[in-house]
Amino acid sequence: MAAWPANTDECLAMELREGNAGANTVADHLRVLDAALAQIPRSSQAKILVRVDGAGATHGLLKRRQALNTTRRTVRYTVGWTITPEDERAIARLPEAAWETSLRQDGEVQEGYFVAELTGLNTREGWPRACG
User: Fold this and answer.
1) How large is the average pLDDT for residues 25-54?
2) Distance from C-alpha of 105 to C-alpha of 2, rounded to nearest angstrom
3) The pairing of beta strand 13-14 with beta strand 100-103
4) How far apart are CA 50 and CA 64, in angstroms?
5) By mean pLDDT, which of 79-83, 86-90, 95-99 is the weakest?
6) 116/91 Cα distance (integer angstroms)
7) Could you give the CA distance from residue 37 to residue 3 in angstroms, rounded to a whole number?
8) What pLDDT was estimated at residue 132?
């Protein structure tokens, strides 16, 4: 498990785990997140975006992420999850005008790939309310 900043591609933190380690082992995720954030210079800590895949979709990790916000630092996050039939129906209801061409991490247009905002349509209980 590892963490990289999008703007420099340097590895900030890494934890090697056994091959049979559980995907949603929150203690491992918290150690990597904390170690990664400790590597970021104070001058670059005002606004941080934490992105994790579905394996990081744990209540403990999101709770810690929310606790990182202070008057001097805003920490936002995105978390992947398995698309459910309910999600598929919400996506199908989006008007064509809602879709935009996606961008790669470097800001360049990624032709043939599109994104749309579904904020407010996540009805999964027990998860933080989306902000938008």
Assistant:
1) 87
2) 18
3) unpaired
4) 11
5) 79-83
6) 8
7) 9
8) 45
